[in-house]
Amino acid sequence: MGSEGLLWRWAGGPGANQSEGLRAPRWALPAVPPATPVMLLGDSGVGKTCFLLQFKDGAFLSGTFIATVGIDFRNKVVAVDGVKVKLQIWDTAGQERFRSVTHAYYRDAQALLLLYDITSKMSFDNIRAWLTEIHEYAQKDVVIMLLGNKADVSSERMVRTEDGASLAREYGVPFMETSAKTGMNVELAFLAIARELKQRAMQLPDVPRFQIHDYIEAQQKRSGCCAFV
Ligand SMILES: Nc1nc2c(ncn2[C@@H]2O[C@H](COP(=O)(O)OP(=O)(O)OP(=O)(O)O)[C@@H](O)[C@H]2O)c(=O)[nH]1
User: CDD domains per the record (predicted)?
Assistant: First the structure.
């Protein structure tokens, strides 16, 4: 699959400081995009790459599972109330052996989509460990959303929707079940994040704060789909 590129600290990832790390030849440096970094996290196999590809290209690659190596990224521009927000979405490797690579990117991320697989109890049980890591490495005010992916495979469900919702409530983060295969709630997850980040950036003292939970619930009601926030 064509990738927009592996992300290197010197190669202009958002927040990347070019005095850090390796120096690349001038021709190899992409322009630094004015993009908002969003990171996909979760165990290997929960569907992070598919989730990103569904959002970016509206496609789902079934069949062979090719684990991500290190970290990869794609850009997508979304419109929030007529204002363009460029998301740079980092697809991280869920495998333990790449953890030290992904840790290096946490602090630059403005939003984190944390996925588990509703057919894998272990991926759900590991969410607490992921949240501990997030609190250790990410910015204090990073936007976090919990997503129970593969909701299309209901016959193999091992994690109840209520359990996902309850864990999200415990940590005070919004929650949705999603499917990278059917596209269910994929765009909504990114739009809610983009809206939250845009509102934060433009927050005026007298204007009430944007409520991401309310936004997701309203959008779900409008589409007649399944809100669990
Ligand atoms: N049915 C179904 N299968 C999915 C869904 N999302 C991903 N898959 C499948 O799950 C497997 C793993 O998907 P990936 O997107 O590669 O998983 P990942 O989280 O990126 O894995 P790492 O790169 O190792 O971290 C693949 O075989 C996908 O086809 C989904 O929403 N529904």
Answer: Rab26
Domain residue ranges of the chain, discontinuous segments joined by +: 36-223
Fold for the domain defined by 36-223: Rossmann fold (3.40.50)
Q: Is 49 close to ligand 1, i.e. is its CB under 6 Å away?
A: yes
Question: Ligand 1 in contact with 113 (CB < 6 A)?
Answer: no
Is the Cβ–Cβ distance between 103 and 96 less than 8 Å? no
Whether 153 is in the pocket of ligand 1, judged by its Cβ within 6 Å, is yes
For 178-227, the pLDDT digits (tens) are 999 999 999 999 999 999 998 887 766 666 677 888 888 888 777 776 64
Nearest CA to ligand 1 atom 14: 47
Q: What angle do CA 177, 180, 183 make, to 5 degrees?
A: 85
Per-residue tokens: 198: 């845009």
